[in-house]
Amino acid sequence: MPKPRRTVAREENVLIVDEKSYNQKEQKENHDRDLPKLTDEQKKVYDEIVGAVLERTGGVFFLFGFGGTGKTFLWKILSSAIRCRGEIVLNVASSGIASLLLQGGRTAHSRWETFWWKGYVFGGDFRQVLPVIPGAGRAEVVCSALNSSYLWKHCKVLKLTKNMRLLSDNLTAEEATDLKNFSKWILDVGDGKIEEPNDGEAEIDIPEEFLITDAEEPIEAISREIYGDASDLQDNTDPLFFQGRAILCPTNEDVNMINEYMLDKLNGEERTYLSSDTIDPCDTAAINDEALSTEFLNSIRVAGLPNHALRLKVGCPVMLLRNIDPIGGLMNGTRLQITQLADFMVEAKVITGDKVGVKVIIPRLLITPSDTLLPFKMRRRQLPLAVAFAITINKSQGQSLSQVGIFLPRPVFSHGQLYVAISRVTSKKGLKILIVDSEGKPQRRTTNVVFKEVFKNL
Ligand SMILES: Nc1ncnc2c1ncn2[C@@H]1O[C@H](COP(=O)(O)OP(=O)(O)OP(=O)(O)O)[C@@H](O)[C@H]1O
């Protein structure tokens, strides 16, 4: 066994060592590179927060800005401004998908207890999808948002208003107006201002230019629109191709339909990985229950748990369902492209985040579903992956994509989903929406859900 490093032994806490192990020179270079890029409103926020930390005045801040205003960009520069001075920043997020956007990001867990705080910065956009609480109604979801908390009165709200995702240089006056209108339409959807008066749910018209109206076979139509001819995909070696594209759907069921279709079309070596499912031995009540047969366990599909039968092909994009290596960029939500299929593992190339292009091996893991209403504890040994030609709207939160296909074989069902979907896109021409009725006929209207009471006291 190697001896423990003395430096580690002398420090009181390994988490503090962990947080202080950032390369200060690298952090300073990142900081100095991005500082001149800040817009005036971003710089104001930066000055206020960095000032409170450096002058030790502390404070509780809430950074409020709609999708694409640069909240993540600011988190990064604020983190490097503080880390380059050898101080500690804890980036925590309420979901894995958000935490993977930041260096050293984690989901909010027990780390909190370890540190003494000089300041808190919260942030977000109340127009986006709110915390998912299984079985909760509108009131409970709204009450789970930060501005319903007793902490809210201590928060100083800082605002960002300029959509940086849609920012382009060298626009003609006409293009600039067009972009401004697009940006406004996205916000109006987010604020529930279209088809007013409404109390949360409204049928809204989608502008013609985004609609796919000619679709005999809806799944084929949306897939072709975003990925072109699927038979050419496997030879596509450009990591940016998949990085910038996704089809977004409201539910996992819709996502599965598209992924199966795309897998059928993709030429490439194929394997189906079957999981081994068991009852967790610590669940002594269920371990001998004969009703919980292997076949029954195999049939269970819950969010966050890879399927029992996972069909993969070389060349297909996949999404990680577990945090494997946060520092190496392998987090719940990271997207990869399969490069080799082996007996109990796969090789894949990272296509999102800072580690784009890096090849990694993904092994099988023993996974216990975390968010489940199952009345017993099960374990599944499987590759922690799901095919990701299509992903749910909730999983897309926080991502910037150049080509977004929104497939709505059923309307969105929760606050902010339509807004999150349409605000992922980096340009107007990259957005396509296919709405179909129960008979598969293309439609021009869809439901928008906005719980307006969540915007109170902002
Ligand atoms: N000052 C800036 N200079 C250059 N690019 C910027 C700047 N601010 C933001 N961006 C870019 O704009 C895009 C959107 O920014 P970012 O992802 O930080 O927004 P966000 O507010 O976190 O969005 P969301 O709420 O949808 O997650 C990113 O590609 C980011 O790199």
Automatic annotation (TrEMBL):
<feature type="domain" description="DNA helicase Pif1-like DEAD-box helicase">
    <location>
        <begin position="119"/>
        <end position="199"/>
    </location>
</feature>
<dbReference type="GO" id="GO:0005524">
    <property type="term" value="F:ATP binding"/>
</dbReference>
<keyword id="KW-0067">ATP-binding</keyword>
<feature type="domain" description="DNA helicase Pif1-like DEAD-box helicase">
    <location>
        <begin position="37"/>
        <end position="112"/>
    </location>
</feature>
<keyword id="KW-0347">Helicase</keyword>
<dbReference type="GO" id="GO:0043139">
    <property type="term" value="F:5'-3' DNA helicase activity"/>
</dbReference>
<dbReference type="GO" id="GO:0000723">
    <property type="term" value="P:telomere maintenance"/>
</dbReference>
<keyword id="KW-0378">Hydrolase</keyword>
<comment type="similarity">
    <text>Belongs to the helicase family.</text>
</comment>
<keyword id="KW-0227">DNA damage</keyword>
<dbReference type="GO" id="GO:0006281">
    <property type="term" value="P:DNA repair"/>
</dbReference>
<dbReference type="GO" id="GO:0016787">
    <property type="term" value="F:hydrolase activity"/>
</dbReference>
<keyword id="KW-0233">DNA recombination</keyword>
<keyword id="KW-0547">Nucleotide-binding</keyword>
<dbReference type="InterPro" id="IPR049163">
    <property type="entry name" value="Pif1-like_2B_dom"/>
</dbReference>
<dbReference type="Pfam" id="PF05970">
    <property type="entry name" value="PIF1"/>
</dbReference>
<dbReference type="InterPro" id="IPR027417">
    <property type="entry name" value="P-loop_NTPase"/>
</dbReference>
<feature type="domain" description="DNA helicase Pif1-like 2B">
    <location>
        <begin position="295"/>
        <end position="341"/>
    </location>
</feature>
<protein>
    <recommendedName>
        <fullName>ATP-dependent DNA helicase</fullName>
        <ecNumber>5.6.2.3</ecNumber>
    </recommendedName>
</protein>
<dbReference type="GO" id="GO:0006310">
    <property type="term" value="P:DNA recombination"/>
</dbReference>
<dbReference type="InterPro" id="IPR010285">
    <property type="entry name" value="DNA_helicase_pif1-like_DEAD"/>
</dbReference>
<keyword id="KW-0234">DNA repair</keyword>
<dbReference type="Pfam" id="PF21530">
    <property type="entry name" value="Pif1_2B_dom"/>
</dbReference>
